[in-house]
Structure formats: C-alpha cells, structure tokens
Amino acid sequence: MIEHVKPHDIEARSFEIIAKELADRGILLDADKDPVIRRAIHTSADFDYAHTLCFSDDAVRIAKELIREGADIVTDTNMALTGINKKRLAEYGGSARCYMADESVAAEARERGVTRASVSMEHAARDAKASGKKTIFAIGNAPTALITLREMYDERIFKPDFVIGVPVGFVNVVEAKELILETDIPHIVNRGRKGGSNVAAAIVNALLYTM
User: Fold this and answer.
1) pTM of the model
2) Does the annotation mark 187 as catalytic?
C-alpha cells in the first residue's frame, strides 16, 4: 500500500524507517558516528554503510572543529559540490570548491597524461598551502584523487587536514581507500567498492547539520 506522506515530512519519515530497520537488524551505532552513518544510509538506501564506514580516532569531533575554524571543502566532482549545503558552511567562514572543470586543470592533465582528479588535488593543495586555510577533501568519485593525496603525504609535500574518502567503482577504488586508512590523516572512509558523490556530500552535510 502507498504511504501518504506530506512533502515536508518525507525526510523525517525516511529517518524513522532507517531507525526501525537498524533496530530490527540489531545494529547499535556509536553516538558520534550515528548521524553520519544514518545520512549515508538515507542518501543511498544501503545499510552496508553501518558496517563499512571507517572513522579515524575522534574523526567527527576533528571534522567539526575544522568546520568551526572556517575550513574549506574540496570535492572531486561538481555533483558533490552541488549537494553540499554551502550556505550552512559559509556560516562558519568556509567555502566549497571543485577544480575538475578548471581549464588549467584539464590542460595540465592532458599534457601529463594523468587524470583531472589527480591534477585538481595538486592545485587544491597548492591553494591550501598558499592561503593557510584548513581544507577538508570530500572524494566521492575518483580513486586517483585519493592516490594523489597519499603521494603528496608520503613525499611530505602536503598533508590534508581531513579526508572523506568514498569513491565508487571498480578500478583501484578499494586500494585507494586503503591508502588513506593506512595514514594518520583524520578521515572518514568507506571500505569496499561502494560510495559516490552523493555519499560524500551526505557525510559533509551530516557534519554541518549536527554542529
């Protein structure tokens, strides 16, 4: 039977359903991680996130502190950029940016024979170092973005303040996530193949909505 729900009540009803199904599955979430995991489930309708989202020590607290300090957010897709609540982020002095469509990024990627995601991370790192602003990287599509962040970390060129690593796919996706999990970079990373730009944006918004 169709459930008749008023438009403004749909999200609340969705979270009620999620809460019931979590309880039915015997899943009890840590209080600090709970809003992040529930919003990832909400945006994907996939309860696997209750088991596969990995958080470094004090990840949620650290991410929120960065946001309160005015951290910027860099995404690897315009879809993730569109999904982030930029008005809420701006209340704390932060802004969101995606470098993927920049002509200079595209030209350099073609010349070097690498992905735009890789070059965009390098450009974002340079801008972050030049401005001195804290930066959260929200990666939902390109494993090469995570690989490049790890390479810059290993070479001591740049250490991200925080990484949300949830690219989706098959080629180097699992491996790229593990590269971030191995570091001391504060992170929220989804193990396995699942993820996506929508999930990256959902994680950012979960942090923003529970400040």
Assistant:
1) 0.95
2) no
* Rounded (5°) CA angle 28-51-167: 140
Give the integer Cα–Cα distance in Å for 71 and 89. 9
Q: What is the DSSP letter of 191?
A: -
152 near 180, Cβ under 8 Å? Answer: no
Q: What SS3 class is residue 96? A: strand
Specify the CATH superfamily of domain 54-209: Cobalamin biosynthesis CobH/CbiC, precorrin-8X methylmutase (3.40.50.10230)
Q: Give me the residue spans of the domains in the chain.
A: 54-209
Catalytic residue among 4, 8, 42, 51: 42
Q: How far apart are CA 180 and CA 177, in angstroms?
A: 5
C-alpha–C-alpha distance, residues 125 and 87, integer Å: 23
| First vs last C-alpha separation in the chain | 38
Judge contact between 66 and 134, C-beta under 8 A. Answer: yes
Predicted confidence (pLDDT) per residue in 91-145, tens digit: 999 999 999 999 999 999 999 999 999 999 999 999 999 999 999 999 999 999 9
